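Students often ask what a holo structure prediction actually looks like on paper. The answer is less mysterious than it sounds. You provide the chain, you provide the ligand, and the output is a string of discrete structure tokens encoding the 3D arrangement of the protein together with magnesium ion.
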Amino acid sequence: MLPETLIAQAATLLRRGELVAFPTETVYGLGALADDDRAVARVFTVKGRPAAHPLIVHVDSLAAVERYAASIPDEARRLAHAFWPGPLTLVLPRRDGVAAAAAGGHATIAVRVPAHPVARALLAAVGAGIAAPSANRFGSVSPTRAEHVLADLGSDVAMVLDGGPCEVGVESTIVDCTGALPSILRPGGVTREELERCLGVAVALRGHELAGPSAPGTLPSHYAPRAIVRIVSPIEIETAIEAARRSGERAVLLAIGAPPVVAIPVIGLGAGIEDAARGLYAALREADDRGFDVVITTLPIDAGLGLAVADRLSKAAGPR
Ligand code: TXA
Ligand code: MG
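The corresponding structure tokens follow.
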């Protein structure tokens, strides 16, 4: 836990309209006071993100959601009780006249109560909502350590709160609660199976079929390192490695589970899918730092956290 003076300083900066990067259990966020449209506009500028792509408003409790949401459907309440604080974002109808810039002008608002103690302390100290996208440049790899934020945005933020490496490592699950049935817009730290167990119904994965505001996480190429990401099936690994070697590419194998013995360098993500999620973004950054041209990898199975990991890898591999 960070000293209280640092948290107080960060809260003061936010209240003055400055930007503060802070840790959450998923990834680091680039925060601005949610009700300060000018500060929020700077978030879009610093990130290089189109202004119509809405931000998530972080709050400290379900009660605080009432300030931003016009209504909270029953399913949303059940999900909030089950998974907050935690890696879940709910899209709700927006209350008129609040957080218009953060919502990108749309009629809905995304809200989340994060679990990271530093995020919670910061929210308590400001006593207001904090709008925050992931603290990276638009389209690139999300930050899971304070040094990632400094490398990406260092001079553009007033302060970076260092809360250590993020526990979950992939972003929150976004659930749209504005339709007849809740649906997943982005798989993330809370699994589809957990949502379904809570609600007692099947929850559709809508992903890029998002009808309302266009979500950057749903563009073909996103979460992408400089290196090309090449997804192959497990039986194609040897062939892909041979092809890369023959064409003179500097290739690295990103291995989920037990790393196979191969003729190129390997970055291992650890044994379980939780390890893969936690280490994924740092591994993609490492591939760039070590100067690889190509990252060869396979997708985990589409279950549990594997759905979010497969989604991020697929987007990192999307057409540029
Ligand atoms: O884990 C996370 O969710 C992290 C941490 C910092 O909380 N935040 C994050 O923010 O990933 P960002 O901006 O990188 O991604 C937020 C996603 C975007 O794809 C955005 O389009 C979508 O949420 N979004 C925000 N408001 C929305 C809305 N009203 N309707 C649909 N999608 C929305
Ligand atoms: Mg992002």
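The chain has ten helices and 14 strands.
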